[in-house]
Amino acid sequence: xxxxxxxxxxxxxxxxxxxxxxxxxxxxxxxxxxxxxxxxxxxxxxxxxxxxxxxxxxxxxxxxxxxxxxxxxxxxxxx
Length: 79
Description:
By secondary structure, the chain is α+β, with helices and mostly antiparallel strands. It has one helix spanning 3-22; strands at residues 26-30, 35-44, 47-52, 55-60, 64-68. Residues 75-79 have low confidence and may be disordered.
């Protein structure tokens, strides 16, 4: 595993742990390293939609590194 992949896995793990403290949430990692926690709503060939803090946000597949879907429960992300 190269350093970039290790960094991505580390960021995903940290985001998952922090998100788990607030609530059960799905974790989207973008290629720029940004970790987004929320609830996966669906996708199509051009991108996916996540619900983050009550708002729907769309992300292009070209910008996505990984998506971790956590089974069960609705996401409630604390501020």
